[in-house]
Amino acid sequence: MTKQTRSPRIDPLDPAGIGDLLTPQEKQVAESVRRLCEDKIDPFVADWFERGELPDIRGLAQELGSLGVLGMHLEGYGCAGMSATEYGLACMELEASDSGVRSLVSVQGSLAMFAIWRWGSEEQKQQWLPAMAAGKAIGCFGLTEPDIGSDPGNMRTTARRDGTDWIVDGRKMWITNGSVADVAVVWARTDEGVRGFVVPAGTPGFSAPEITHKLSLRASVTSELVLDGVRLPAEAVLPEVTGLKGPLSCLNEARYGIVWGSLGAARACLNAALSYAGERTQFGKPIAGFQLTQRKLVDMTLEYTKGLLLAVHLGRRKDEGTLLPEQVSLGKLNNVREALDICREARTILGANGISLEYPVIRHMANLESVLTYEGTVEMHTLVLGQAITGHAAFR
Questions:
Q1: Which of 142, 236, 254, 293 has the greatest number of beta carbons closer than 10 A?
Q2: How far, in Å, are 145, 148, 180 from residue 230 at the CA level?
Q3: What are phi and psi of 12, to 5 degrees?
Q4: Residue 170 within any structural domain of the chain
Q5: Together in a domain, 252 and 225
Q6: Where are its TM segments located (predicted)?
Q7: DSSP letter string over 318-351?
Q8: Domain finish residue from 133, 167, 194
Q9: Which of 219, 242, 265 is the last residue of a domain?
Q10: Residue 2 belongs to some domain of the structure
Q11: Which of 50, 192, 375, 379 is the catalytic position?
């Protein structure tokens, strides 16, 4: 008589078994970041969001630095040198806690640190990268301006030569980490084209007033950068790049992290909805037992699963050196849009409780409204992909 074996049950949190695509080290990275978030962020983040602050940001930065998360995909200078997929998984775990915390890490590592690591001088790298990797110095990235977002080629911030020095004048807007940063990477128009400058905080003429009254990314420091006749020495300029190639290369790094990070927010809301539906009783049974609720949960799970498969695929391509900028646009456009839809659907399952900060759903919903816009709007990524598949540019 043949003994029958029972088929394993599907994992409701990973029905496609995507975890099987990850290496033991990748799983370990995700678990390490998840443990830090559970200990240092999750118990407090709803209160931070409600109060509109990220208290002890320097302490949190050093915790993240000790774990090796800051600039973790960069080589040397105290950076962990981990893979793109490992970095993506870290972003997903961070954003499962809060988009603002993931933004802190993304701006530090993929924008400010990457700009110095990729385009800076050896002196700039030695001066800033080890401290930034350890979280002992915080960086920000100044590209967006009050009236210039999707068209950075028309930025109004300028830099002119004065002897061997540079004089920088202008404004930057919506700058994560700005008012707490020790160093800002600022992009400006020059007679030679767009150039990047490493601006230490405290330089005369430089200030970073904090932006308040936000209803999204409230557990994040957001600032304006003001540069009034900021005099910088010749060695402050990033020497290895001229033109928009510089800032756009940095944005591509940050967008890649968002491909993964947005799924963390989606996963948190999906898990909250699944748990709530199993506990909330109406008409004598849990609402998880009703067909319409199950359809919502299944649709949310499908979109999350497809987004995660896309993220893993793009991560493998990035690790192989074959990832194209247009493919990053594909991931950013799809995953943020679907993550926001998942969060909105989760809110309907939680009913009135969905708007309470006792649950993570409304916080993630509000945060993703910002994530949908920054590092390239839906419209811009749509046009990037439109040009890629048709061969016709439609930006103007």
A1: 142
A2: 17, 21, 18
A3: -65, -20
A4: yes
A5: no
A6: none
A7: HHHT---HHHHHHHHHHHHHHHHHHHHHHHHHHG
A8: 133
A9: 242
A10: no
A11: 375
Helix (H, G, I), strand (E, B) or coil at 31: helix
Cα separation, 108 vs 133, whole angstroms: 9
3 lies in a domain?
no
Identify whether the C-beta of residue 101 lies closer than 8 Å to the C-beta of residue 219. yes
Active site residue 375: yes
Q: Are residues 118 and 178 in the same domain?
A: no
Token pair listed for 222: 């957001």
Dihedral-angle region of residue 324 (phi above 0 means left; psi in -120 to 50 means alpha; beta otherwise):
beta
Give the contacts of 99 (CB within 8 A, at least 6 positions apart). Answer: 217, 220, 261, 265, 364, 367, 368, 370, 371
CB 234 within 8 A of CB 198: no
Which residue type is seen at 309? Answer: L
Maximum alpha-carbon separation in the chain: 93
Looking at residue 34, its amino acid is R
**Residue ranges making up the domain that contains 254:** 246-390
Q: Is the pLDDT of residue 134 over 90?
A: yes
High-pLDDT (> 90) share of the chain, %: 95
> Is the Cβ–Cβ distance between 122 and 77 less than 8 Å?
no
CATH number where 167 lies: 2.40.110.10
- Cα angle 44, 46, 47 (rounded to 5 degrees) comes to 70
pLDDT tops 60 at residue 2 = no
- Cα gap 396→388, rounded to integer Å: 16
HSE, side-chain direction, 13 A CA sphere, residue 84: 22
Q: Per residue in 45-99, pLDDT tens?
A: 999 999 999 999 999 999 999 999 999 999 999 999 999 999 999 999 999 999 9
Arithmetic mean of pLDDT, 140-146: 97
Check whether residue 257 and residue 199 sit in a common domain.
no
Residue 13 lies in a domain: no
Rounded to whole angstroms, what are the CA distances from 356 to 47, 97, 270, 351? 12, 16, 16, 10
Q: Are strands 222-232 and 165-176 parallel, antiparallel or unpaired?
A: antiparallel
Note the pLDDT tens digit of each residue in 99-119: 999 999 999 999 999 999 999
β pairing state of 165-176 and 158-162: antiparallel
